[in-house]
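Case study 2.
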Amino acid sequence: MKPLKAKTIYIIVLLLCTLHAGAQTLAWYDPVKAPQSCINGRGWDSELQGTYTRLPNRMQKNMPEKVWKLSQNAAGLTIRFTTNSRTLQFKYTVVNAPQLPNMSRLNQAGIDLYATNNNGHTHWIGNHMQWNWGPDTISFAFRELETGEGTYELYLPPYSTLTSLKVGVEKEATFNFCPVRTDNPIVIYGSSIIQGASPSRPGLMWTNILQRQTGYNIVNMGFSGSCLMEPELFKALSEIDAKLFIIDPIPNSYRLTDEEIIKRITQGVHQLRRKSNAPILLSESYPQPDITFNPHAEDRMRSANKALRAAYESLLKAGVKGIYYQNSQEIEFTEDAMIEASHPNDIGNMAYAKAYEKKLKEILH
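Prediction:
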């Protein structure tokens, strides 16, 4: 055997032994088999046990097909746990799906990790490219952590359907899943921008930024390309005992006529009011960041914003209480806030979160 070939074989065997040894030192925990529910961000937690989905099965027959399919994605779902392990590994399987052209793979199918130490300070933990992207099984490793007895929050991929997930920690380490949050959530209904398009990673979705900045429990009801304010959606939303509802429909609903926008949002608000007295915040679309040299690209979007405003003013005149409004200029975009003038990048998602945080303080103070 030639020396170079023998050396190559030796290195491969050594690597395999090292990987096997590493796997042997980890204990694995499955969130869906936890003693108590631990998957946050769902409006129907008791009906969704054993899954990483967002709508219960009983709703499938009445939901628009695209909405139902997107509800299988894990947008906005998080898992909190405590451990003193210096090594963490996550292995999960997803339904194979084509890569979206306007989104990083890390955001579409990746995970994101934050931790809070004993002093109450929350920090992001980077993966440093210690990952393995299989065709259906993906793994992320985090090593040599100095968190101590930290509380971790794992953000799941917003545009993937998870079929399994396991958390690996050192065998001698302590580990516990945190119980699911039970405080009334902020329920956010909207388009792909709410579902998670298109920051670089899941933790930078504006709904997830808002969750960290405010501490509120968030339920993400974003459906990419499919926020058309159908009665079935508002009926579903009305089942959630919300702290506040955010309705941000125009990035998709601009495709409807002005008359239909007014009709659907008016009926939707009345549907929510029949079940809930929680505040309702209606929001216009984002401001167009490239308007200087392309001033007419979103004329229809701006017209749809006016229709939403008309519906809001009509609801006020009809005596509907507890409704609020956010205009597009309150979302303070720079020209660098979007990836293709339809979806916010990291900068744009931060601007979204900032605008909504300010609005929530005004409403909930």
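The two ends are 75 Å apart (CA to CA).
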